[in-house]
Amino acid sequence: MNLNELTIKAARKLLDDKTISAVQLTTACLKRIKTTDKTLKALITLCEKSALAAAHEADARIAKGEKGILLGIPYLAKDNLLTKGIKTTAASKMLENYVAPYNATVIARLEAAGAILLGKTNLDEFAHGASTENSAFFTTKNPWDIKRVPGGSSGGSAAALAADFCLFALGSDTGGSIRQPASFCSVVGFKPSYGRVSRHGLMSMTSSTDVVGPITKNVEDAALVLGVIAGVDEYDSTSSPDKVDNYTKNISHNLKGLKIALPQECFGSDLSPAVREVMDKAISELKKLGAQVREISLPHTKYSIPVYYIITPSEISSNLARLDGFRYGHRSKVKVGESLNEIYLQNRGEGFGPEVKRRIMLGTYALSAGYFDAYYKKAQSVRMLISDELNETLEKFDVILTPTSPHTAFKIGGQDQDPLQMYLEDTFVSGPSLAGLPAISIPAGFIKGLPLGLQIVGAKRQEAKVFQVAHNFEQATEWHKNKAKI
Amino acid sequence: MSLDIAEIKHVAALSKLGLSASELKHYGKQLSAVLSYIDQLTTVDTSGVDAKNRLGKNYNVWRADEAVAWEDDGRQIALEQAMEMKDEQIKVPRVLE
User: Fold this and answer.
1) A237 and A337 share a domain?
2) Are the beta carbons of A341 and B16 separated by less than 8 Å?
3) Per the count of CB atoms within 10 A, which of A61, A63, A116, A171 is most buried?
4) Which of A71-85, A120-134, A424-438, B83-97 has the lowest mean pLDDT?
5) Is A183 within a domain?
6) Which residues of chain B approach chain A closer than 8 Å at the C-beta?
7) Tens of pLDDT along A392-413?
């Protein structure tokens, strides 16, 4: 086995035994990236020099007897997370040459823990999308079939991890952006509860649902990374002051008597028979493990997408106002006129890509005079109903189970001309985001050689429960051991 | 919901996006389709929901309003992002008319 293929836990043991060094581990990852990323296009920036320097430092810390789960472990971060002294582009022309002057809290915590940043991964511009086709630079390929998308918006992180470029990757999830690419690439993608992980230094998209989370090779690794990045942060007033749990302590506890809810709306007649078959097998497996599975109804869940596509663009229209060519972003070289307004129009018209423009306009419209009540207020009200329904269900059940995505990875260029079709990608994943709940996507099977994930949603702050169910399923099925041949 | 060309122009102006005539037409069509889809929300009974109060349920987080000095390298990187500099300060076009 090549070192870059190791899980965090396996690498940790070898590093602590002094069987391998952090430099060897990092070199193996860099080598894999250099040979394979020409095909995959998962990275926007490679940080070879600083990664090797960090690896030497990690080895020195290990030699001094320092312990730490991520000490000397190489990772990749989505390029909407600020990394001091390193280009941070959000895959936008707006920030093509932007170098972050400080680290996001998650990056700072990983640096302190001795994790090694290998580089920055591709995404849909400002995380707006579900395929990486909205990246202003290039589209990342799916390692299972390079004619297909890796999902998005954290598609670069999911594809890179699936191709063993690193031992773990960071993504951000606003309405499915960690879970959907995890499903498409057959990796584990975890979205923590809203506020569990600091958003400081994550470029704001939808501040009421944005959250940073890990993409890993198995469930236990996701729990280990979360343990390092979670916790209150004075720079993010929405971060939760609740104590950070030990997420691996009860991860192996069996599922006897555990209650799982299946929302009938997610298993309706429009679900493809192939996806249903994968899900049926998964449900039987969970029953075998001792779980009690019951069908329930979430009648408002079908409104998740229309609600999401009012709330999200509204917050985007406000959050992206700072990208005006003065405070941040691209300044046009075209001399259009003297007035400030004309300069703004030119900078923003040139700098933003089509999906960002659509979302800014949709949000601006929803928040504009005369439409606020009909759109924004209405969407917030329906959001409450969706949220109540999920929370009430999770008072009676331990977790909710759905497919992560209605299908496997689609072809590059297959649906990029139809924004509405792309929005429907988030059908099963946007509800938990609107309610701020923890949710994971784990490998659950294959359809014609392409992976599909299942989603497990837990009650707020019950990430440990989500990990426990996911870990038990994973250990019983071993879908996660299948590797893309790239 | 369908946006006519005057409406989409108005939205683009409010959004501070300079768009060509063909872009306006293109986005107008796409946004109309999305809004028509979103219009299904009007069928949901939300009479019992007080979204404003519910959203305000969060607590405040306070800290002392104290200036914290930024380390030199971070400050230097931030300044380097500016298109124009003069005497260690960022120079921008005139914004007050």
Assistant:
1) no
2) yes
3) A171
4) B83-97
5) yes
6) 3, 8, 11-12, 14-19, 23, 27, 30-31, 33-35, 37-38, 40-42, 44, 46, 49, 51-52, 54-55, 58, 61, 63, 73-75, 77-78, 80-81, 83, 92-95, 97
7) 999 999 999 999 999 999 999 9
Is position A247 within any domain? Answer: yes
A295: its two tokens: 């069908």
Does position B97 have pLDDT exceeding 70, yes or no?
A: no
Residue A107: give the domain boundaries: 3-256+399-481
Residues A407 and A476 in one domain: yes
3-state secondary structure of B14: helix
Domain count, chain A: 2
Which residues from chain B sit within 8 angstroms of residue A354, using beta carbons? 27
Residue of chain B whose Cα is closest to the Cα of A239: B61
CA dihedral for A282, A286, A289, A294, sign (positive or negative):
negative
* Predicted confidence band of residue B92 (pLDDT cuts 50, 70, 90): confident
Nearest CA in chain A to B63: A234
Does the pTM surpass 0.95? The reply is: yes
Instruction: Name the A residues in 354-373 with CB < 8 Å from any B CB.
Output: 354, 357-358, 360-362, 364-365, 368
Active-site amino acid positions of A: 78, 153, 177
Closest partner CB to B14 (pick from A84, A364, A384)? A364
pLDDT tier, B55 (very low <50, low <70, confident <90, very high otherwise):
low
In a domain, residue A289? The reply is no
The reply to whether residue A307 touches residue B41, judged by beta carbons under 8 angstroms, is yes
Q: Is the peptide bond before A284 cis (omega within 30 degrees of 0)?
A: no
Q: How many CB atoms lie within 10 A of CB A235?
A: 14
* Contacts made by residues B36-40, CB under 8 angstroms, sequence distance 24+: B36/B1, B36/B2, B37/A305, B37/A306, B37/A309, B37/A420, B38/A306, B38/A309, B38/A310, B38/A375, B38/A379, B38/B1, B39/B1, B40/A303, B40/A306
Residue A57, classified by CB atoms within 10 Å of its CB into exposed (0-12), middle (13-18) or buried (19+), is middle
Q: Kindly identify which residue of chain B lies nearest to residue A236, measuring between CA atoms.
A: B61
Q: Which of A378, A411, A442 is the last residue of a domain?
A: A378
